[in-house]
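Lab notebook, design round three. We kept the backbone fixed and only want residue identities now. Task for the bench partner: fill in a sequence for the structure below.
Input structure tokens:
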């Protein structure tokens, strides 16, 4: 019998209740499982780190913390009955709400620091699921559709001369009862579908900028240097200057150019980024006026890394990093948390999963139908993990019988493609990302070849895996599109064979389960194959890994993705329990066999 640990309400939730100025309509529930970081979160330290490591400025104001909250009415409410801890979604225990609401109203006030006078003030949202409308001092300043991408607004003209400034946010999210990408979020979770995460779920912050300022910096690495495209707002003839420095601060390259156009910086004695040596250069972008005086300045970083397809000695197509055949081996990473759902409780928690992935001997991770906060990719870059990034799928009924499914309605297709483009543009400078996955197992799939070609045209520097798991579910035939043929076989490993110029991978396999009493989510545990002890789990993992090496050597496999990093709700096939408190198999044995698989696939 599965036993659920008895948990008291964590200190965070007690703190939220004490701090409320008005009674809540419903008491927040304690999480069914706490993580080692649950008790570290409180209203004064909700994700305090600067949220955008590739475009940093020294002055900023974090707006995470307690906001007023209500679900009342279509129009802006005149009173709020609850408080919510932003940026944790309302469904999460960390938010202090603990339920789903189709419509959410948020309110808080802030003051503009005196030394920001004379500058523009930008308001940034990391992500709000699914449709957001924002007012500052009763003036609408932004609307945004899609729950996975960031958006910003220049709120300067809405600010009062002094004193408190008011922000109101309305978010609407019905999860799968909608035409927006949702990934695995569901109102009625179960099996491989999980609790939804609505509303504000990433950091909210303010920063001052000059009238002419950098809005984004697109960085494309090659093996000998960087192509950097600074994009600016409010420019009046300024030039962009880009400076590349080694980690110790020594300048290695400097060049100027017109904003909005690529600026090439050759790097002498280039030090390449690899999973074994994740070397990153610091990059500074400045705007210079006609006299050469510097205005806006932003900081960032990038590594020198390429990905391509090459032929091995047997003539088979293989994935190559920096021109060298590199076997991609890593876990399926879904990014769910028992206390924060879509939002990790702390930055240390966000980093933890990636650190454990490295300790398990992997060099790769597939981010599965979810887009993470920018700091997750920062840690993948810093720690040295190659990444495939999935596009979150449109809603789909997974209990449909096998066979062709009707394509999504035109409105859903528009939403999907708009957010797909936004995701790629938002993440295109991330060093660790080497591939895009538009579709998974046919979920919400349509026009596969066109979408794959569109993604490749939008970013020709990375691989496109048109449909991960094209062999399964019988819903869509192989279109032949993209750079990768991707097999899903449980327990597997799968045995795909080269059929054309695409490399072949086991995009999902494994799924070996183990129930650890006191560390399971309420409900019936499930896995593709259940084991009854850590020893049996480790033994089966070794057997599957040894079989994987045979497939690599005989078929020319380029990658393998094991399900999965952690348990997720009722799925108990993770290396770690859902609360991240127990590593289920023997880590040293698993790591030894993972490294052996990488070595077998990397001639």
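Proposed sequence:
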């Amino acid at each position: 019998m599965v036993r659920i640990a008895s948990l008291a309400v964590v200190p965070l939730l007690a703190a939220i209740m004490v701090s409320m100025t008005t009674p809540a309509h419903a008491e927040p529930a304690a999480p069914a499982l706490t993580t080692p970081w649950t008790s570290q979160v409180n209203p004064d330290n909700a994700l305090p780190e600067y949220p955008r490591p590739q475009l940093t400025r020294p002055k900023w104001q974090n707006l995470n913390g307690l906001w007023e909250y209500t679900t009342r009415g279509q129009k802006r409410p005149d009173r709020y009955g609850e408080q919510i801890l932003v940026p944790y979604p309302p469904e999460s225990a960390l938010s202090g709400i603990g339920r789903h609401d189709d419509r959410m109203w948020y309110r808080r006030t802030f003051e503009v620091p005196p030394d920001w006078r004379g500058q523009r003030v930008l308001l940034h949202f990391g992500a709000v699921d699914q449709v957001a409308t924002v007012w500052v001092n009763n003036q609408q300043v932004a609307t945004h559709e899609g729950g996975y991408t960031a958006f910003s607004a220049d709120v300067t003209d809405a600010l009062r001369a002094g004193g408190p400034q008011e922000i109101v946010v309305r978010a609407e999210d019905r999860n799968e009862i909608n035409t927006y990408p949702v990934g695995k979020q569901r109102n009625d979770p179960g099996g491989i579908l999980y609790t939804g995460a609505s509303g504000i779920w990433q950091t909210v912050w303010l920063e001052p900028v000059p009238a002419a300022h950098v809005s984004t910096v697109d960085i494309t690495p090659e093996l000998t240097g960087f192509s950097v495209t600074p994009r600016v707002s409010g420019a009046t003839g300024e030039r962009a200057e880009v400076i590349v420095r080694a980690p110790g601060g020594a300048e290695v390259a400097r060049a100027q150019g017109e904003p909005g156009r690529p600026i090439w910086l050759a790097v002498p004695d280039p030090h390449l980024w690899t999973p074994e040596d994740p070397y990153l250069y610091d990059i500074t972008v400045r705007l210079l006026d006609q006299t050469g005086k510097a205005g806006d300045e932003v900081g960032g970083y990038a590594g020198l890394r390429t990905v391509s397809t090459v032929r091995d000695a047997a003539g088979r197509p293989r994935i190559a990093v920096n021109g060298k055949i590199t076997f991609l081996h890593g876990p399926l990473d879904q990014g769910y948390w028992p206390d924060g759902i879509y939002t990790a409780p702390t930055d240390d928690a966000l980093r933890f999963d990636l650190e454990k992935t490295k300790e398990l001997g992997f060099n790769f991770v597939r981010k599965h139908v979810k887009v993470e906060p920018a700091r997750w990719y920062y840690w993948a870059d810093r720690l040295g993990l190659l990444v495939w990034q999935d596009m979150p799928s449109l809603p789909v009924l997974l209990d449909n019988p096998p066979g062709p499914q009707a394509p999504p309605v035109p409105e859903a297709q528009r939403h999907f493609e708009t957010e797909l483009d936004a995701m790629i543009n938002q993440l295109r400078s991330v060093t660790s990302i080497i591939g895009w996955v538009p579709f998974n197992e046919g979920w919400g799939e349509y026009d596969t070849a066109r979408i794959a070609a569109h993604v490749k045209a939008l970013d020709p520097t990375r691989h496109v895996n048109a449909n991960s798991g094209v062999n399964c579910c019988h819903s869509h035939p192989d279109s032949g599109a993209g750079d990768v043929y991707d097999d899903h076989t449980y327990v597997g490993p799968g045995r795909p064979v080269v059929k054309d110029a695409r490399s072949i991978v086991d995009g999902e396999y494994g799924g070996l389960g183990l129930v650890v009493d006191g560390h399971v989510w309420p409900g019936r545990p499930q896995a593709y194959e259940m084991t009854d002890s850590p020893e049996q789990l480790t033994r089966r993992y070794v057997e599957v890994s040894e079989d994987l090496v045979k497939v690599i050597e005989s078929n020319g496999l380029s990658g393998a993705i094991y399900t999965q990093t952690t348990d997720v709700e009722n799925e108990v096939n993770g290396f770690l329990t859902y609360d991240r408190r127990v590593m289920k198999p023997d880590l040293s044995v698993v790591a030894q066999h993972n490294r052996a698989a990488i070595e077998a696939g990397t001639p």
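Keep this in mind before ordering anything: The chain has three domains: 11-209, 223-302, 307-600.
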